[in-house]
Amino acid sequence: MRQGSKKWTSGIVAMLLFSSLLSACGGNKSDTTDSAGTGSDSGSSKKQVEVTLITWESAEMNDKIMASMKNFEQENPDIKIKLIPTPLDNYGVKINGMLTAKKAPDIFMTGNDMLLDNASKGLLYDWSSMEAQDKEFMDGFYKGVADSWHYEGKLVGLPGLLNTYGIFYNKKAFTDAGLTEPKIGWTYDEFFADMQKLSSKQGGVQQFGYYAPLDPFYASLYSVSAGGAPFADAIINPTKVEISDRFVEGVEKYKTAIADGSMNPPTFDLTNVMSSFKQGKVPMTLQGQWVADDLIRTAPKELEWGFVPMPTGSSQTEIYDAVGWCSPTTVENPEAVWKVLKYLDSKMYEEVLPKTPVAPAAYQASSTAYFDALKAAGHAEIGEGIDHILKSPSTLPVRFLSSWAGKANPFIEASWKNILMGKAPVTDLNMMADKINKVISEAK
């Protein structure tokens, strides 16, 4: 799931625990003692290999993961999986410190941008030889998903779970407004017309028809779907950003929606939007698919809600990103680690996702368990929408993944909100792009 958002995640913590983490991960290599799944009747005289693993999950989720990995150990008695306990803060800081100290575990969870940053520093194991030998497995991922898990042509990790983004809507709000519920393939014209019809101002309180964050990457969906250029020209290491006529057209539509109260302004606090959605006060809101799990479990039974992908223009284009797994260059038993990685991405998710249906697996066959769990909960439309998103012929970045992002993003912050609220001219988009392109150029 998405880093910095609600998903399975959080991180690990406290510097005073760092030294214990390092010592715990230092012996990540092999062990000759018996353990679960490696009894003396295994019939194998092989020296047992230990593969160490760190996740950013909760203790409850780690228990589910390790319960599945016990099945792996039974199938592979010469491999023992050792989960390294992790605190819940500053995950990236801790992992980076362990990588630098050459004490990182054999496998650790990572986000896409964290992966690429560590790969650029030469800290990650290159799985290209395994990729070449295991083509059937690699072909099992959703098309294009594994592309951003390569760096300079090398496979430096495997995507695990996918974050998709679409619109959760209140069915009663649509019925009361005399509107047809949105379906896969609905248009931007319908989208903007619906949000206007769903907005109201009663008792001096503004209710927007659509609640969402908006940045250039989401505006880019409109541009590309309408036949224009994307804001960023590539998911990994874009060479430029561009403000096309279609991009400006989309920004103008959003500006109008904000001005007439159809959509929240960019300064609006969206912290409690899902709480308001559960109370039936939000007609439409842009969210990651992971909120569906919470709605299924905790939304009032009388709340009728649905999910639909973002609208389209002349063609479909979508945004999604992934979290997954990678390994340090210090791995000593790559064959064993690769076996574990494959199991994590396939069988483990097949066993865990039905119990915690928060995201589809990047490995397409294993995502079926997630979709089946949604069907069983009475929300097959979520799985249908997500599958539609993941099969999109065109995908765009959800944010800058490159190491120079920290220098580029302030230029968006300085201009974007004022442009959307009409406090700065739309022509300032070109100035913003010029400054970002200078950052990209200087980073080459």
Topology:
Layout: H1 18-26, E1 49-54, H2 59-75, E2 79-83, H3 91-100, E3 107-111, H4 112-120, H5 128-133, H6 135-138, E4 150-151, E5 154-155, E6 158-170, H7 171-176, H8 188-198, E7 200-202, E8 205-207, H9 216-225, H10 245-259, H11 273-278, E9 284-288, H12 291-298, E10 305-309, E11 318-326, H13 334-352, H14 367-376, H15 380-390, E12 395-396, H16 405-420, H17 428-443
Parallel strand pairs: 1-2, 1-3, 11-12
Antiparallel strand pairs: 3-11, 4-5, 6-9, 6-10, 6-11, 7-8
Helix pairs in contact: 2-13, 9-10, 14-15, 16-17
Entry summary:
This protein is α/β, with parallel strands linked by helices. Helices cover 41% and strands 14% of the residues. It is globular, with a radius of gyration of 23 Å.
Low-confidence stretches: 1-44
Number of helices: 17
Biggest sheet architecture: 8 strands, mixed
General form: globular
**Helix/strand order, N-terminal first:** HEHEHEHHHEEEHHEEHHHEHEEHHHEHH
Percent of residues in β-strands = 5-15%
Structural class: alpha/beta
Number of strands: 12
* Oligomer state of the chains in this structure: single chain
Share of helix, binned: 40-55%
Distance between the termini: 30 Å
The average pLDDT score comes to 89
Gyration radius from CA atoms, angstroms: 23 Å
